């Protein structure tokens, strides 16, 4: 007997991991429909979608609650994320990386999604003195203790490898350093080794419940 195909909603489909994730879902025989909530229309050749599974929807992220019906799927993937430099301030960064992701988790819970998976960061710790890692850690603590959320999981990548649409100086420097001295990423430091976005996307899919 063939198992029924799953449905998925992706928030943050145009980022480095999000693009790879959506493409993997579109070619996966396990998924029949992939809804992408985006800020602006997707390009005509943004994704290879041979079976016409993709359903993009341009939304206002300041009013995520108005789109809660799109969270009534098997699996919700949240790939939202920014940097303090791009956001413009710590409060603006927290709005994207904590508040919006947290709202997505709440909507997944309210709509009884079977699984919610999002992108955190290696070193995430709510007690960290590093603001970025502190926010990521606070988000983890909040979502993992959210009552009545059937299943939640986070991927914690280090520096991401892939073709970005934007330039990130710190990330580029870290990747160059990792190529010059790859021997340092062993033992306890192995988790800090740069990882390709395709692998992170694959992990997110694998973390979802059956």
From TrEMBL:
This is NAD(P)H-binding protein. PANTHER family: OXIDOREDUCTASE HTATIP2. It comes from Opacimonas viscosa. Pfam families: NAD_binding_10 (PF13460). Residues 12-132 form the NAD(P)-binding domain.
């Amino acid at each position: 007997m063939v198992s029924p195909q799953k449905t998925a909603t992706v928030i943050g489909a145009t980022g480095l991991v999000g693009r790879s994730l959506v493409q993997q879902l579109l070619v996966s025989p396990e998924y029949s429909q992939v809804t992408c909530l985006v800020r602006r229309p997707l390009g005509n050749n943004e994704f290879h979608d041979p079976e016409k599974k993709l359903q993009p929807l341009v939304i206002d992220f300041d009013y995520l609650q108005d789109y809660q019906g799109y969270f009534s799927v098997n699996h919700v993937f949240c790939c939202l994320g920014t940097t303090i430099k791009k956001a413009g301030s710590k409060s603006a960064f927290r709005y994207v990386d904590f508040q919006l992701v947290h709202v997505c988790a709440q909507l997944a819970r309210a709509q009884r999604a079977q699984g919610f998976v999002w992108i955190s960061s290696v070193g995430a710790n709510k007690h960290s003195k590093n603001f970025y890692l502190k926010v990521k850690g606070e988000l983890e603590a909040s979502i993992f203790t959210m009552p009545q959320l059937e299943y939640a999981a986070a991927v914690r990548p280090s520096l991401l490898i892939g073709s970005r649409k934007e330039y990130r100086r710190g990330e580029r420097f870290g990747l160059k350093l990792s190529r010059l001295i790859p021997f340092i990423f062993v033992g306890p430091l192995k988790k800090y080794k740069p990882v390709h976005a395709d692998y992170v996307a694959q992990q997110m899919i694998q973390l979802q419940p059956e």
